[in-house]
Amino acid sequence: MIMQNKLVSYQPITDVQCHLVGIDLVVDKRENATDNISESVISALHPFLCLETAGLFANHQVFVKVDEQFLMADALTLLPKTQVVLTLVRCDVVSEDLINRCSVLADMGYSLALDDWADKDPRLPLLAYAKFVRINLEHGLQSISDVLVSSTANLIAVETNCLEQRECSENIGVNLYQGYYYLDVRPDATKSLPLSVHVILEVIAELNSDGSDAALERFFRENPVLSVQMLRMVNSAAIGAGREVSSIRHAIMILGRGQMIRWLQVMLYTQRDTANVPTMLMYTALWRAKLMELMSTQCNHHGSTVHHDAVFMTGMLSLADVLLNDSMNSVVAKMSLATSIRDALLNRSGVAGSLLALVEFLELAKFADVEKHASVLGTTIEVIMACQNEALIWVDQIASSLDI
Question: Which Pfam families does UniProt cross-reference here (predicted)?
Protein backbone atom coordinates (compact mmCIF):
# COMPACT_ATOMS: atom_id res chain seq x y z
CA MET A 1 0.00 0.00 0.00
CA ILE A 2 1.07 3.57 -0.74
CA MET A 3 1.37 5.63 2.45
CA GLN A 4 0.29 9.27 2.58
CA ASN A 5 0.05 11.46 5.69
CA LYS A 6 -2.45 13.97 4.34
CA LEU A 7 -6.14 13.42 3.67
CA VAL A 8 -7.24 13.86 0.05
CA SER A 9 -10.82 13.66 -1.19
CA TYR A 10 -11.19 12.33 -4.73
CA GLN A 11 -14.32 14.04 -6.05
CA PRO A 12 -15.93 13.19 -9.41
CA ILE A 13 -16.18 15.53 -12.38
CA THR A 14 -18.94 14.42 -14.74
CA ASP A 15 -20.36 15.47 -18.08
CA VAL A 16 -23.97 16.25 -19.01
CA GLN A 17 -24.70 12.52 -19.35
CA CYS A 18 -23.39 11.96 -15.82
CA HIS A 19 -20.37 10.00 -17.06
CA LEU A 20 -17.10 10.29 -15.17
CA VAL A 21 -14.59 12.45 -17.06
CA GLY A 22 -12.20 13.52 -14.31
CA ILE A 23 -11.22 13.40 -10.66
CA ASP A 24 -10.83 16.54 -8.59
CA LEU A 25 -8.20 16.21 -5.84
CA VAL A 26 -9.22 18.17 -2.73
CA VAL A 27 -6.32 18.29 -0.27
CA ASP A 28 -6.77 18.81 3.47
CA LYS A 29 -5.00 22.08 4.33
CA ARG A 30 -6.45 22.82 7.76
CA GLU A 31 -3.15 22.67 9.61
CA ASN A 32 -0.79 23.37 6.75
CA ALA A 33 -2.21 26.45 5.03
CA THR A 34 1.27 28.02 4.81
CA ASP A 35 2.94 24.91 3.34
CA ASN A 36 4.48 25.13 -0.08
CA ILE A 37 1.71 24.08 -2.41
CA SER A 38 4.18 21.89 -4.30
CA GLU A 39 4.20 19.41 -1.41
CA SER A 40 0.41 19.15 -1.48
CA VAL A 41 0.40 18.67 -5.25
CA ILE A 42 2.99 15.89 -5.24
CA SER A 43 1.32 14.15 -2.28
CA ALA A 44 -2.11 14.26 -3.90
CA LEU A 45 -0.84 13.10 -7.30
CA HIS A 46 1.44 10.36 -5.99
CA PRO A 47 -1.08 7.50 -6.41
CA PHE A 48 -1.52 8.45 -10.07
CA LEU A 49 2.20 8.71 -10.83
CA CYS A 50 3.97 5.84 -9.05
CA LEU A 51 4.75 2.49 -10.61
CA GLU A 52 2.46 0.50 -8.31
CA THR A 53 -0.61 2.22 -9.73
CA ALA A 54 0.48 2.88 -13.30
CA GLY A 55 -2.58 3.32 -15.46
CA LEU A 56 -4.93 4.23 -12.60
CA PHE A 57 -7.86 6.01 -14.21
CA ALA A 58 -5.74 6.49 -17.32
CA ASN A 59 -8.83 7.48 -19.29
CA HIS A 60 -9.81 10.23 -16.86
CA GLN A 61 -8.10 13.55 -16.20
CA VAL A 62 -6.91 14.40 -12.70
CA PHE A 63 -7.41 17.99 -11.57
CA VAL A 64 -5.01 19.38 -8.97
CA LYS A 65 -4.71 22.93 -7.64
CA VAL A 66 -1.42 24.75 -8.14
CA ASP A 67 -0.11 28.28 -7.59
CA GLU A 68 2.10 30.53 -9.73
CA GLN A 69 5.26 29.26 -8.06
CA PHE A 70 4.46 25.68 -9.00
CA LEU A 71 3.56 26.62 -12.58
CA MET A 72 6.90 28.38 -12.98
CA ALA A 73 8.90 25.42 -11.67
CA ASP A 74 10.61 23.07 -14.11
CA ALA A 75 9.60 20.07 -11.97
CA LEU A 76 6.01 20.17 -13.22
CA THR A 77 7.17 19.08 -16.68
CA LEU A 78 7.70 15.63 -15.14
CA LEU A 79 3.91 15.30 -14.74
CA PRO A 80 2.01 13.39 -17.45
CA LYS A 81 0.52 16.10 -19.67
CA THR A 82 -2.28 13.91 -20.98
CA GLN A 83 -3.72 13.12 -17.55
CA VAL A 84 -2.99 15.96 -15.11
CA VAL A 85 -4.91 19.24 -15.30
CA LEU A 86 -3.05 22.10 -13.60
CA THR A 87 -5.70 24.21 -11.86
CA LEU A 88 -4.39 27.70 -11.10
CA VAL A 89 -5.77 29.14 -7.85
CA ARG A 90 -6.93 32.74 -7.62
CA CYS A 91 -4.29 35.47 -7.60
CA ASP A 92 -4.46 39.27 -7.38
CA VAL A 93 -1.84 40.07 -9.99
CA VAL A 94 -1.00 38.33 -13.27
CA SER A 95 2.58 38.98 -14.34
CA GLU A 96 3.94 38.88 -17.86
CA ASP A 97 6.11 35.95 -16.80
CA LEU A 98 3.00 33.99 -15.76
CA ILE A 99 1.24 34.79 -19.05
CA ASN A 100 4.27 33.62 -21.02
CA ARG A 101 4.58 30.48 -18.90
CA CYS A 102 0.93 29.53 -19.49
CA SER A 103 1.42 30.07 -23.20
CA VAL A 104 4.46 27.78 -23.22
CA LEU A 105 2.71 25.07 -21.17
CA ALA A 106 -0.32 25.17 -23.46
CA ASP A 107 1.95 24.81 -26.50
CA MET A 108 3.64 21.84 -24.80
CA GLY A 109 0.25 20.14 -24.48
CA TYR A 110 -0.47 20.71 -20.80
CA SER A 111 -4.08 21.27 -19.77
CA LEU A 112 -4.68 24.37 -17.68
CA ALA A 113 -7.71 25.30 -15.59
CA LEU A 114 -8.59 28.51 -13.76
CA ASP A 115 -10.06 27.92 -10.33
CA ASP A 116 -12.84 29.89 -8.63
CA TRP A 117 -13.48 32.35 -11.46
CA ALA A 118 -14.94 35.68 -10.34
CA ASP A 119 -16.47 38.76 -11.93
CA LYS A 120 -13.67 41.03 -13.24
CA ASP A 121 -11.15 38.28 -12.62
CA PRO A 122 -7.51 39.49 -12.90
CA ARG A 123 -6.63 36.19 -14.64
CA LEU A 124 -8.52 37.27 -17.78
CA PRO A 125 -5.25 37.38 -19.83
CA LEU A 126 -4.83 33.66 -19.08
CA LEU A 127 -8.25 32.67 -20.38
CA ALA A 128 -6.88 32.13 -23.88
CA TYR A 129 -4.67 29.31 -22.57
CA ALA A 130 -7.22 27.66 -20.27
CA LYS A 131 -8.96 24.45 -21.27
CA PHE A 132 -11.22 24.59 -18.21
CA VAL A 133 -12.68 27.30 -15.98
CA ARG A 134 -14.16 26.39 -12.61
CA ILE A 135 -17.06 28.48 -11.31
CA ASN A 136 -18.95 28.43 -8.03
CA LEU A 137 -22.61 29.31 -8.45
CA GLU A 138 -22.79 30.33 -4.81
CA HIS A 139 -20.75 33.40 -5.76
CA GLY A 140 -23.55 34.54 -8.06
CA LEU A 141 -24.19 34.40 -11.77
CA GLN A 142 -22.43 37.71 -12.41
CA SER A 143 -19.18 35.72 -12.59
CA ILE A 144 -20.49 34.09 -15.79
CA SER A 145 -19.59 36.96 -18.05
CA ASP A 146 -20.11 37.06 -21.81
CA VAL A 147 -16.36 36.77 -22.34
CA LEU A 148 -16.33 33.53 -20.35
CA VAL A 149 -19.29 32.00 -22.17
CA SER A 150 -17.81 32.94 -25.54
CA SER A 151 -14.40 31.46 -24.74
CA THR A 152 -13.31 27.98 -25.83
CA ALA A 153 -12.85 26.83 -22.23
CA ASN A 154 -15.06 24.12 -20.76
CA LEU A 155 -17.01 25.45 -17.77
CA ILE A 156 -17.03 23.33 -14.61
CA ALA A 157 -19.64 24.09 -11.93
CA VAL A 158 -18.02 23.17 -8.61
CA GLU A 159 -19.78 21.92 -5.49
CA THR A 160 -22.77 20.84 -7.55
CA ASN A 161 -24.41 18.66 -4.93
CA CYS A 162 -28.10 18.86 -5.86
CA LEU A 163 -30.20 18.70 -9.01
CA GLU A 164 -31.28 22.34 -8.68
CA GLN A 165 -27.65 23.48 -8.89
CA ARG A 166 -27.02 21.14 -11.81
CA GLU A 167 -30.01 22.44 -13.78
CA CYS A 168 -29.17 26.08 -13.02
CA SER A 169 -25.59 25.67 -14.25
CA GLU A 170 -26.60 23.75 -17.38
CA ASN A 171 -29.00 26.55 -18.34
CA ILE A 172 -26.11 29.03 -18.50
CA GLY A 173 -23.82 26.92 -20.65
CA VAL A 174 -21.93 24.77 -18.14
CA ASN A 175 -21.08 21.32 -19.50
CA LEU A 176 -19.07 19.75 -16.64
CA TYR A 177 -19.92 19.33 -12.97
CA GLN A 178 -17.91 18.63 -9.85
CA GLY A 179 -19.98 17.21 -7.02
CA TYR A 180 -22.54 14.63 -5.98
CA TYR A 181 -25.71 15.99 -7.59
CA TYR A 182 -26.33 12.55 -9.09
CA LEU A 183 -27.24 11.22 -5.64
CA ASP A 184 -30.35 13.39 -6.04
CA VAL A 185 -31.25 11.62 -9.28
CA ARG A 186 -34.03 9.09 -8.89
CA PRO A 187 -35.33 6.64 -11.49
CA ASP A 188 -38.07 8.06 -13.69
CA ALA A 189 -41.33 7.22 -11.91
CA THR A 190 -43.08 6.75 -15.27
CA LYS A 191 -40.61 4.05 -16.34
CA SER A 192 -39.98 0.81 -14.54
CA LEU A 193 -36.60 -0.59 -13.72
CA PRO A 194 -35.76 -3.78 -15.62
CA LEU A 195 -37.10 -7.00 -14.18
CA SER A 196 -33.56 -8.16 -13.44
CA VAL A 197 -33.14 -5.49 -10.75
CA HIS A 198 -36.06 -6.87 -8.78
CA VAL A 199 -34.88 -10.41 -9.39
CA ILE A 200 -31.44 -9.50 -8.06
CA LEU A 201 -33.04 -8.22 -4.86
CA GLU A 202 -34.87 -11.54 -4.51
CA VAL A 203 -31.69 -13.55 -5.08
CA ILE A 204 -29.79 -11.45 -2.53
CA ALA A 205 -32.57 -12.09 -0.01
CA GLU A 206 -32.46 -15.83 -0.84
CA LEU A 207 -28.69 -15.92 -0.33
CA ASN A 208 -28.92 -13.99 2.93
CA SER A 209 -31.49 -16.48 4.20
CA ASP A 210 -29.36 -19.50 3.19
CA GLY A 211 -31.68 -20.56 0.39
CA SER A 212 -31.03 -23.82 -1.42
CA ASP A 213 -29.02 -24.14 -4.63
CA ALA A 214 -32.19 -25.38 -6.33
CA ALA A 215 -34.03 -22.17 -5.44
CA LEU A 216 -31.12 -20.06 -6.71
CA GLU A 217 -31.01 -22.08 -9.92
CA ARG A 218 -34.70 -21.39 -10.47
CA PHE A 219 -34.12 -17.63 -10.30
CA PHE A 220 -31.47 -17.81 -13.00
CA ARG A 221 -33.40 -20.23 -15.22
CA GLU A 222 -36.34 -17.82 -15.23
CA ASN A 223 -34.10 -14.83 -16.06
CA PRO A 224 -31.88 -15.68 -19.03
CA VAL A 225 -30.28 -12.22 -19.22
CA LEU A 226 -29.03 -12.57 -15.64
CA SER A 227 -27.85 -16.11 -16.43
CA VAL A 228 -25.78 -14.90 -19.38
CA GLN A 229 -24.23 -12.18 -17.21
CA MET A 230 -23.36 -14.74 -14.54
CA LEU A 231 -21.75 -17.04 -17.08
CA ARG A 232 -19.68 -14.11 -18.38
CA MET A 233 -18.56 -13.50 -14.80
CA VAL A 234 -17.57 -17.15 -14.34
CA ASN A 235 -15.51 -17.05 -17.52
CA SER A 236 -13.85 -13.72 -16.74
CA ALA A 237 -10.19 -13.40 -15.81
CA ALA A 238 -11.26 -12.60 -12.25
CA ILE A 239 -12.77 -16.09 -11.79
CA GLY A 240 -10.66 -18.20 -14.12
CA ALA A 241 -10.73 -18.15 -17.90
CA GLY A 242 -11.23 -21.40 -19.73
CA ARG A 243 -13.29 -23.24 -17.11
CA GLU A 244 -16.01 -25.38 -18.66
CA VAL A 245 -19.44 -24.73 -17.18
CA SER A 246 -21.91 -27.60 -17.58
CA SER A 247 -25.01 -26.04 -15.98
CA ILE A 248 -26.41 -23.08 -14.08
CA ARG A 249 -25.94 -25.08 -10.86
CA HIS A 250 -22.30 -25.72 -11.83
CA ALA A 251 -21.79 -21.97 -12.39
CA ILE A 252 -23.26 -21.26 -8.95
CA MET A 253 -20.88 -23.81 -7.43
CA ILE A 254 -17.85 -22.27 -9.19
CA LEU A 255 -18.71 -18.76 -8.07
CA GLY A 256 -19.52 -19.70 -4.50
CA ARG A 257 -22.09 -17.87 -2.43
CA GLY A 258 -19.75 -15.19 -1.15
CA GLN A 259 -18.53 -14.28 -4.65
CA MET A 260 -22.06 -14.48 -6.04
CA ILE A 261 -23.58 -12.08 -3.55
CA ARG A 262 -20.84 -9.52 -4.24
CA TRP A 263 -21.35 -9.88 -7.99
CA LEU A 264 -25.12 -9.43 -7.60
CA GLN A 265 -24.60 -6.23 -5.61
CA VAL A 266 -22.49 -4.84 -8.46
CA MET A 267 -25.11 -5.97 -10.99
CA LEU A 268 -27.75 -3.92 -9.16
CA TYR A 269 -26.05 -0.75 -10.36
CA THR A 270 -25.14 -1.83 -13.88
CA GLN A 271 -28.41 -2.96 -15.41
CA ARG A 272 -29.17 -1.29 -18.74
CA ASP A 273 -32.53 0.40 -18.28
CA THR A 274 -34.58 3.36 -19.41
CA ALA A 275 -35.14 4.92 -16.02
CA ASN A 276 -32.21 7.37 -16.24
CA VAL A 277 -30.20 5.92 -13.35
CA PRO A 278 -26.70 7.49 -13.53
CA THR A 279 -23.72 5.15 -13.86
CA MET A 280 -21.92 7.29 -11.27
CA LEU A 281 -24.04 5.51 -8.65
CA MET A 282 -22.07 2.38 -9.50
CA TYR A 283 -18.70 4.12 -9.13
CA THR A 284 -19.67 5.58 -5.77
CA ALA A 285 -21.18 2.37 -4.39
CA LEU A 286 -18.18 0.29 -5.51
CA TRP A 287 -15.73 2.80 -4.04
CA ARG A 288 -17.56 2.92 -0.72
CA ALA A 289 -17.81 -0.86 -0.47
CA LYS A 290 -14.18 -1.61 -1.26
CA LEU A 291 -12.78 1.22 0.86
CA MET A 292 -14.88 0.14 3.83
CA GLU A 293 -13.84 -3.48 3.41
CA LEU A 294 -10.13 -2.59 3.16
CA MET A 295 -10.36 -0.35 6.20
CA SER A 296 -12.16 -3.03 8.21
CA THR A 297 -9.14 -5.30 7.72
CA GLN A 298 -6.93 -2.58 9.22
CA CYS A 299 -9.08 -1.51 12.17
CA ASN A 300 -8.64 -4.63 14.33
CA HIS A 301 -12.41 -5.19 14.50
CA HIS A 302 -13.62 -8.77 14.09
CA GLY A 303 -11.05 -10.02 11.62
CA SER A 304 -13.32 -12.65 10.06
CA THR A 305 -14.23 -12.90 6.39
CA VAL A 306 -17.90 -12.83 7.39
CA HIS A 307 -17.40 -9.41 9.00
CA HIS A 308 -15.55 -8.01 5.99
CA ASP A 309 -18.29 -9.30 3.67
CA ALA A 310 -20.89 -7.54 5.83
CA VAL A 311 -18.93 -4.28 5.66
CA PHE A 312 -18.61 -4.61 1.89
CA MET A 313 -22.37 -5.22 1.57
CA THR A 314 -23.11 -2.17 3.72
CA GLY A 315 -21.16 0.04 1.33
CA MET A 316 -22.73 -1.49 -1.77
CA LEU A 317 -26.26 -1.09 -0.44
CA SER A 318 -25.74 2.43 0.93
CA LEU A 319 -27.14 3.88 -2.31
CA ALA A 320 -29.82 1.27 -2.97
CA ASP A 321 -32.52 3.71 -1.88
CA VAL A 322 -31.40 6.11 -4.62
CA LEU A 323 -31.22 3.31 -7.18
CA LEU A 324 -34.68 1.96 -6.39
CA ASN A 325 -36.38 5.29 -5.64
CA ASP A 326 -37.47 3.92 -2.30
CA SER A 327 -36.83 4.55 1.38
CA MET A 328 -33.85 2.80 2.95
CA ASN A 329 -36.22 1.25 5.51
CA SER A 330 -38.18 -0.37 2.69
CA VAL A 331 -35.06 -1.54 0.87
CA VAL A 332 -33.60 -3.10 4.01
CA ALA A 333 -36.85 -4.90 4.77
CA LYS A 334 -36.74 -6.68 1.39
CA MET A 335 -33.30 -8.26 1.72
CA SER A 336 -33.15 -10.27 4.96
CA LEU A 337 -30.06 -8.37 6.08
CA ALA A 338 -28.07 -9.07 9.24
CA THR A 339 -28.74 -6.76 12.17
CA SER A 340 -25.29 -5.16 11.91
CA ILE A 341 -25.92 -4.21 8.26
CA ARG A 342 -29.43 -2.91 8.96
CA ASP A 343 -28.19 -0.77 11.86
CA ALA A 344 -25.33 0.59 9.77
CA LEU A 345 -27.57 1.54 6.84
CA LEU A 346 -30.38 3.01 8.92
CA ASN A 347 -28.53 4.56 11.87
CA ARG A 348 -24.81 4.62 10.96
CA SER A 349 -24.23 2.58 14.13
CA GLY A 350 -21.71 -0.16 14.84
CA VAL A 351 -18.35 -0.61 13.12
CA ALA A 352 -19.90 -0.82 9.65
CA GLY A 353 -21.95 2.32 10.35
CA SER A 354 -18.88 4.25 11.48
CA LEU A 355 -16.98 3.14 8.39
CA LEU A 356 -19.87 4.24 6.17
CA ALA A 357 -20.06 7.62 7.89
CA LEU A 358 -16.30 8.08 7.50
CA VAL A 359 -16.33 7.43 3.73
CA GLU A 360 -19.35 9.73 3.28
CA PHE A 361 -17.47 12.55 5.03
CA LEU A 362 -14.37 11.78 2.96
CA GLU A 363 -16.42 12.12 -0.23
CA LEU A 364 -17.47 15.62 0.83
CA ALA A 365 -13.97 16.62 2.01
CA LYS A 366 -15.23 17.11 5.58
CA PHE A 367 -11.85 16.21 6.95
CA ALA A 368 -12.48 17.09 10.62
CA ASP A 369 -15.37 14.59 10.68
CA VAL A 370 -13.21 12.00 8.94
CA GLU A 371 -10.61 12.30 11.69
CA LYS A 372 -13.27 11.99 14.42
CA HIS A 373 -14.51 8.70 12.99
CA ALA A 374 -10.96 7.52 12.37
CA SER A 375 -10.25 8.04 16.06
CA VAL A 376 -13.34 6.03 17.04
CA LEU A 377 -12.30 3.21 14.70
CA GLY A 378 -8.70 3.29 15.88
CA THR A 379 -7.22 3.97 12.45
CA THR A 380 -4.95 6.63 10.94
CA ILE A 381 -4.81 9.02 8.00
CA GLU A 382 -2.09 6.88 6.43
CA VAL A 383 -4.31 3.80 6.56
CA ILE A 384 -7.33 5.67 5.19
CA MET A 385 -5.37 7.05 2.24
CA ALA A 386 -3.67 3.74 1.46
CA CYS A 387 -7.03 1.97 1.49
CA GLN A 388 -8.62 4.70 -0.64
CA ASN A 389 -5.89 4.39 -3.27
CA GLU A 390 -6.26 0.60 -3.38
CA ALA A 391 -10.05 0.95 -3.62
CA LEU A 392 -9.68 3.34 -6.58
CA ILE A 393 -7.54 0.80 -8.43
CA TRP A 394 -10.12 -1.91 -7.81
CA VAL A 395 -13.04 0.28 -8.91
CA ASP A 396 -11.20 1.25 -12.10
CA GLN A 397 -10.57 -2.41 -12.89
CA ILE A 398 -14.18 -3.44 -12.25
CA ALA A 399 -15.58 -0.53 -14.30
CA SER A 400 -13.22 -1.38 -17.17
CA SER A 401 -14.24 -5.04 -17.13
CA LEU A 402 -17.90 -4.00 -17.29
CA ASP A 403 -17.14 -1.53 -20.11
CA ILE A 404 -18.69 1.40 -18.21
Answer: HDOD
